[in-house]
Structure formats: structure tokens, C-alpha cells
């Protein structure tokens, strides 16, 4: 049986392998012992009146972090207890994308709703969240008290809702949203439903009134949460029909497109009635823009520092694949141009070709201040070296690079939050 108690031994089990790589000081036995003892001491005194959070502004919102590692260990234990007492069965991003592609390829009438919850973490009613937590019979009273004290302290310090950025907040939000998720899934017209934090996609039979359906979904949200009207998108898709090609639309016409979880979905009408629709996945335009922004910032930084080795590392990073520490789950996971978007059709990808073209123009063009400064600051040999990299090659050949912790920090420095 899982042990929910807080003590030196149970908290020591919260240590992860990658902790010893991200914080090398923990390899010293005395330092490790000190952190565990401090965490065990906190679990005795509790969080009443104890403020343990720092915050920074990211894209206009407060994002919180836990500066003391001993505090982080206790929060991990609280989060683990909560997840053990109330298991959350969330599908992976990859599973969601695969299911969604298969569903919308079917040549049937449907409505696709792309909805967003406004100020997700900040809008939760803390008392309602605590009510859900306290209703979990298998959760220990000590864990419930810690969560109550944490949210009370956060509110007394001027915080609203749940502190964005904490793994515990993500777990609490999922528990608070569980009833909403089940209500939407059980709606008679809903074929497919997925919510990834605040980002919602729903596929329905198309028999409902879109306006009334969205109103109904908004009414199901927990108190304090509202749909963001500015990000509301609806695609109305009718049953397949025979192709009506024209000189301007040869072949199978595209009937609609949308973005979800970093992918763009382009849906083309079937060749014959009731045949499957052709669904082409590519990298979402929002992600392409993000990569281009990072590339531009890397070139601008080189123009200031003249550090070509660092610029080359950054281009390698963007065009290749690598392993990265998973902060929330522990261990490492694979990431990069292939692993982040492995479900795209490389041969049909406009995004990969567009990124390679942008890299070529950024490297060889003197147009625009940013690229002109780079062109004037670099040598012909350096530019030739950068042109050996390719987003498409990194994807097709699954090119892997290794970056140590110092390199990883230096690479991301000029584009943090970009």
C-alpha cells in the first residue's frame, strides 16, 4: 500500500535521477542529507504562514517557482499523494493527435469546436478546488491540510486562483475540471473531446446549434472559469460529396484546416463519396513562427557577441533532436524537430521547406537590419558551415546531437520565453 505519510524516508523517495545532474551539489552526501532534513522539518511544521514561492512575469502572467529544493521535495510528495488518491488518466499528446486524425478522416458530417478557457489557472475559485480535494476520501488529512495552507497563503499574498507554474497546480486544476470533462464527454452529440490544460477541441455530430452548444459548454465550466470568445473557432463539415474540380481547384479541394497541440490539420475532400478524407499534418504556423523568432534572435546575438561556436550550437539545436530532462516526471525524454512533430508527412510538409528557406535567407541575405548585421559580422566559411544544417534533414534522418547542461543553458539564454 502506498505510504502517504511525510517523513525523511518518504520524502527521500521524491529524489529523481536528473536532480543530481541539474544540481550537482546534491552528489555531496552532506548537501543531500541537509536538503532531506530541511524537507522533513518542513513537513512537521507545515505551510501555515509560510511563503515559499518566487514569481516572474512571462507573457503578461505571473509564473511561480520554488527556489528552495527542500520545499520542492515536500511539494512533490504532496502532488504524489494527490495523484495516488485521485488517479488522473490523461491521454498523451501523441495519442490525442492520432485519434483526432483518424476521426476527422471519416467522411461524415461533423462540427469541430476549438475553444479556450480564459486565464485558466488564475480564474479558479480556490474554495471550490479545496472542496474537491477534501472530498477525496483516500487522501490523508495531513495532505489536505498542506494543500489548504498553501492555497490560503497564496490568496493572502494577493494571488488569484492557483499558482501558475507548479506541478501541484496542474494536478489540482485537473481534479477541479474532472466533472466538466465527464459532462462534455457524455453529451449525446459529442464524438470526441479533449482538453489540454486550457485548450479544448470537441468534435460533434453536427446536428446541434453551434451557438447553443457553446453556451452550454460555457455553463458547465466550474465557477470562475469562462470561455475566451476571441479564441473561439468553429468548423462546419458536411457529409462527403463528389469532387467538383475546377481549373482553380484541381484534385481534392481542401475543405477546412485548424491547429491543435502544435500541429496543423489540413483536411481534403474524399475522391469518392464515403471514402476517407485525406488529412495532412504539418507543423502549426504558430510553432513555425516561434522557431523563426528563435533563429532570428540567435543571429542578432551573434552580431553582438561574435561567438560563432554558440550560434552554431543554437542552429544545431533547432534543426536536430536531443534528450532533455523532464522536470515534472523525472528522467529524460526525446525532443527536437522530429520527436516534437513526428506525425507530420515530411514529403508534404510546407513547414519544413519554409524553415529551411528561412535559414538559407537568414544566412545569405543582407536584407533587413538583423540579417545585414549578421552578414557583415560573419565570414564566408562561417556561412557555409551554417548552410550544412537543415530542418528537413534533421527530421528525415533523425539527426541527434548531445548538449551538456552548460551548453543547454547557453543555447536558450537569448530566446528565453520566445
UniProtKB/TrEMBL annotation:
Residues 1-265 form the Reverse transcriptase domain. Signal peptide: none annotated. This is Reverse transcriptase domain-containing protein. It comes from Proteobacteria bacterium 228. Pfam families: RVT_1.
